[in-house]
């Protein structure tokens, strides 16, 4: 199993300035016309098979879970109110927050029982709300603070009551609003997995044994009103989840460094690091997909928060919001809701984040946003001026909160006018309690840079690199950066973003719709949309993706240049093997693979090499996350998906597998003698396409071989019986192939092996199939924080996927396209050495037909070689065409595959030994 992630060391070595293969400010030498010609020459991948996920990712996010838990608890307590007679609202239909305390007190005084699941729901609601309240500026509004105090009080009362399960804990109940409570599963609460273990120190604070009874509110909120006004809590919880997922990304790349150091100390091959890069990229891309799902759900729940800046305003600008509301109460003729104020502030914040000049930002907001807002809500002249002053203050605040190098002189001027030598506030104060997206790793800073870059893209001529070098600060040097915000601005703005812009504007990723990109490398899809539509607002998915990329560089900073050269070398090795395979097909006169379909597949995959065009700055492509994503794409699409179309298209794989399996059944060969075949056998032994079900026993080889080739059961049994008569009863009349080849051609419908049959990690990554995931880990820290919420479920899925990659390393390291050629060379050689070629051609209806030739060879192989292995008492004691059948085939098999050059088929080293494992995430 992959090892437990080890913390990153803090001591960094100084390094020389990394050289760039081309200037970030110099556009590529090719023209748009030339590029269109390149695109026209690329293979058409639009009709390549695209799979629909078997088991879609539909588990709820954590904020939906705690809301459902709160609703279930309210429903339960409302039922108890009917039983105990506690007072509820006057209309007898709406329960307020105050009513909960009355019901709890009444249940306590009467000594009633409590359903354990109600306590679990209450515990989840308190846990989540407590965590969010601690993070919000000011702790949240008074209504929500009171609600948390009421829930905590109810816990102290209800937890002491006798526990007794109820069959009517949850029933379908519709609210008076347009929203409704859906039918709930009584046991859904257990999905949250809150265990009744001894409470740790944090729990003791969150769940005290006693609290004083809160004073009732004069105008208490109903549950519907409370949950509908819960957007600030939900927004903060969304950010917490982002921070947790980014923490997982950080740990993945810390493990890359540790593996690299271990490899250096042990003196093993440098390419041993490749699986770890793939692990980290797969985990990060799964994180990007999770963030995208969360973003969609949040926007559906709160449509106005689909704008990234409005969410930031909701969480971090309550003071500005209160000041705007005060101005409007005094100067606006129309009533304005708090939500509409957030929309106004978010739009002003977008102006402030998207410019490198505070003056430009303010002018844009003052000229367009403020007048429109004032007109809509009929704000008088005095109020409009006050709003403009607030917007100016917000603009200056943002300049000092997320400073960038181009606005340095403007900040100095502002400080001079204010007669102050100190900044207005310390930078990067937003999201202060979130260590991976706040502080010196501020994702808001990344958002500002992306917004600035997008604004430049709108004004950039086609083919030109948009931002010059050294505009955002000193150039990146390995070993020097310690923070994302500030230290990596120049790297992002002058190297990575401009070069990725060129890649997605002119390269293969911009001109060809590569299959399965959204499954394997969502990073590419998100950035492609950003380049194609720079006018669109920065999304959380984009910000998270770029921030994860910067995190991968920061965590591997001490070995970044080493990873760069290693990743590029392994990438090129894959395509050198493809060149060998293509050349072998063209030069192999007796091969049946050199048809147009096989060559087109090999060349289609070969087109992916264009991603590594030399005109691009290497660090834009070969940074750890992007490089790992490319290696993942090669693994799952270029290797497994495309490889499974070729590896057995002439039955070469199943001929080898049935021969190998038959020899082992008879004790002629053992596992471990031929490592090459051991890997293939272990990988394909569960493939229904190859074996037509389970592995065959002795006496079933021939029948299983034919049924797996698409022959009906009746004919398969008939031919197996004919072989049995020949080898079990020494009936030498058997063995004729007249008509057999033509019969097979008419009836044969051979099923190709599918990558999801041989690779669990393929099912996880490409099919999004997690139906059989098993939690084999106990990540105590994460469990304590999230109590098996959706974040815990997400971590379990990542762990399971990374375990699958670990177990499949030997398989994933095989280049299936070149492997197909090697297997075909073996089959062609077997036909020659067994002296079958002349017999097949002499009795074929069309001697020049490659398909009929192969069918004849398959019949001779099954009838004689498998027949002897199936039914003979001594398989080694049989000849056909004066050639010892089993003796010759087994000797040739052993000699051929033990002499296979690993450089032709293994594109990275699969590690054979690993240290022990705990969690990944």
Secondary structure: helix percent: 55-70%
Would you tell me the overall average pLDDT? 77
Major β-sheet strand ordering: 1-2
Strand content: under 5%
Q: What general outline do the C-alpha atoms trace?
A: globular
Which spans have pLDDT < 50 for at least 5 consecutive residues? 1-43, 45-60, 89-93, 171-202, 731-742, 912-921
The largest sheet, given as strand count, sense and whether it forms a barrel, is: 2 strands, antiparallel
N-to-C CA distance: 13 Å
The beta-strand count equals 2
What is the number of helices? 41
Radius of gyration: 33 Å
Given helix and strand content, the structural type is mainly alpha
What does this structure look like?
- The structure is a single chain.
- This protein has 921 residues and is an all-alpha fold.
- Among the domains are: 62-228, no CATH class; 307-401, no CATH class; 648-761 and 821-905, no CATH class.
- Helices cover 59% and strands 0% of the residues.
- It is built from 41 helices and two strands.
- A two-stranded antiparallel sheet has the order 1-2.
- Strand 1 and strand 2 form a beta hairpin.
- The two termini are 13 Å apart.
- Residues 1-43, 45-60, 89-93, 171-202, 731-742 and 912-921 have low confidence and may be disordered.
């Amino acid at each position: 199993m992959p090892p437990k992630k080890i913390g990153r060391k803090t001591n960094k070595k100084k390094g020389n300035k990394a050289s760039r293969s081309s200037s970030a400010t110099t556009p590529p030498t090719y023209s748009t016309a030339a590029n269109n010609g390149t695109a026209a020459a690329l293979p058409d991948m639009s009709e390549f098979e695209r799979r629909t996920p078997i088991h879609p990712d539909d588990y709820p996010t954590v904020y939906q879970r705690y809301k459902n838990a709160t609703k279930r608890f309210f429903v339960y307590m409302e039922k108890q109110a009917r039983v105990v007679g506690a007072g509820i609202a006057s209309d007898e239909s709406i329960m307020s927050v105050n009513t909960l305390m009355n019901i709890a007190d009444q249940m306590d005084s009467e000594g009633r029982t409590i359903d354990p699941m109600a306590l679990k729901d209450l515990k989840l609601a308190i846990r989540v709300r407590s965590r969010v309240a601690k993070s919000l500026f000011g702790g949240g509004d008074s209504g929500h603070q009171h609600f948390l105090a009421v829930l905590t009080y109810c816990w102290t009362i209800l937890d002491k009551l006798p526990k007794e399960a109820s069959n009517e804990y949850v029933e379908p109940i519709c609210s008076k609003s347009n929203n409704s409570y859906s039918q709930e599963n009584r046991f859904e609460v257990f999905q949250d997995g809150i265990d009744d273990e001894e409470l740790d120190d944090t729990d003791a604070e969150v769940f005290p044994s006693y609290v004083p009874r809160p004073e009732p509110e004069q105008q208490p909120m109903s549950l519907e009103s409370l949950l509908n006004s819960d957007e600030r809590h939900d927004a903060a919880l969304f950010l917490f989840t982002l921070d947790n997922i980014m923490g997982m990304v950080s740990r993945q790349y810390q493990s890359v460094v540790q593996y690299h150091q271990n490899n250096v100390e042990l003196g093993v091959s440098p390419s041993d690091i490749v699986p770890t890069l793939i692990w980290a990229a797969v985990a990060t891309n799964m994180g990007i997909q999770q963030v995208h799902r969360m973003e969609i759900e949040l926007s559906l729940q709160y449509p106005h928060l689909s704008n990234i800046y409005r969410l930031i305003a909701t969480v971090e600008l309550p003071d500005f919001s209160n000041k705007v509301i005060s101005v409007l109460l005094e100067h606006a003729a129309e009533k304005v809701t708090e939500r509409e104020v957030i929309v106004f502030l978010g739009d002003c914040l977008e102006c402030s984040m998207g410019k490198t000049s505070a003056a430009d930002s303010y002018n844009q907001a003052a000229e367009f946003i403020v007048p429109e807002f004032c007109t809509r809500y009929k704000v008088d002249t005095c109020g409009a001026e006050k709003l403009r002053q607030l917007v100016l203050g917000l603009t200056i605040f943002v300049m000092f909160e997320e400073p960038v190098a181009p606005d340095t002189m403007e900040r100095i001027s502002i400080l001079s006018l204010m007669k102050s030598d100190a900044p207005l506030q310390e930078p990067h104060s937003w999201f202060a309690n979130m260590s991976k997206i706040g502080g010196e790793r501020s994702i808001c800073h990344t958002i500002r840079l992306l917004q600035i870059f997008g604004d430049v893209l709108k004004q950039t001529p086609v083919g030109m690199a948009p931002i010059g070098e050294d505009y955002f600060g000193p150039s990146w040097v390995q070993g020097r950066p310690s923070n994302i915000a500030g230290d990596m601005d120049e790297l992002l703005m002058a190297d990575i973003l401009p070069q990725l812009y060129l890649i997605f504007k002119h390269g293969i990723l911009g001109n060809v719709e590569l299959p399965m990109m959204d499954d394997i490398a969502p990073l590419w899809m998100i950035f492609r949309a950003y380049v194609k539509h720079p006018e669109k607002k920065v999304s959380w998915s984009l910000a998270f993706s770029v921030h994860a990329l910067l995190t991968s560089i920061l965590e591997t900073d001490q070995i970044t240049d080493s990873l760069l050269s290693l990743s590029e070398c392994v990438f090129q090795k894959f395509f050198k093997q493809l060149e060998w395979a293509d050349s072998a097909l063209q030069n192999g006169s007796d091969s049946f693979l050199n048809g147009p379909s096989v060559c087109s597949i090999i060349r289609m995959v070969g087109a992916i090499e264009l991603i590594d065009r030399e005109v691009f700055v290497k660090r834009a492509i070969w940074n750890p996350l992007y490089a790992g994503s490319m290696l993942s794409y090669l693994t799952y699409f270029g290797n497994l998906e495309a490889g499974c179309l070729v590896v057995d298209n002439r039955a070469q794989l199943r001929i080898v597998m049935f021969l190998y399996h038959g020899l082992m059944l008879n004790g002629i060969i053992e596992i471990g003698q031929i490592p090459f075949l051991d890997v293939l056998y272990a990988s394909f032994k569960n493939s229904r396409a190859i074996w037509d079900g389970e592995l065959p026993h002795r006496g079933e080889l021939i029948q299983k071989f034919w049924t797996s080739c698409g022959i009906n059961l009746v004919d398969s049994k008939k031919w197996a019986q004919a072989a049995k008569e020949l080898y079990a009863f020494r009936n030498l009349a058997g063995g004729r192939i007249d008509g057999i080849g033509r019969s097979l051609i008419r009836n044969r419908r051979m099923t190709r092996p599918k990558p999801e049959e041989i690779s669990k990690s393929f099912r996880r990554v490409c099919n999004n199939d997690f139906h059989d995931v098993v939690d084999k880990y106990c990540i105590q820290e994460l469990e304590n924080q999230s109590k098996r919420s959706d974040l815990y479920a997400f971590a379990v899925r990542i762990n399971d996927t990374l375990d699958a990659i670990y177990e499949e390393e030997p398989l994933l390291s095989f280049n299936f396209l070149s492997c197909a050629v090697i297997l075909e060379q073996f089959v062609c050689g077997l036909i020659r050495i067994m002296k079958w070629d002349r017999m097949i051609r002499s009795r074929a209806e069309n001697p020049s037909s490659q398909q009929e030739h192969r069918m004849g060879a398959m019949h001779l192989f099954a009838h004689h070689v498998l027949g002897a292995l199936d039914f003979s008492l001594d398989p080694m004691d049989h000849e056909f065409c004066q050639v010892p059948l089993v003796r010759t085939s087994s000797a040739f098999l052993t000699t051929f595959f033990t002499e296979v050059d690993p450089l032709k088929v293994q594109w990275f080293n699969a590690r054979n030994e690993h240290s022990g494992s705990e969690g990944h995430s």
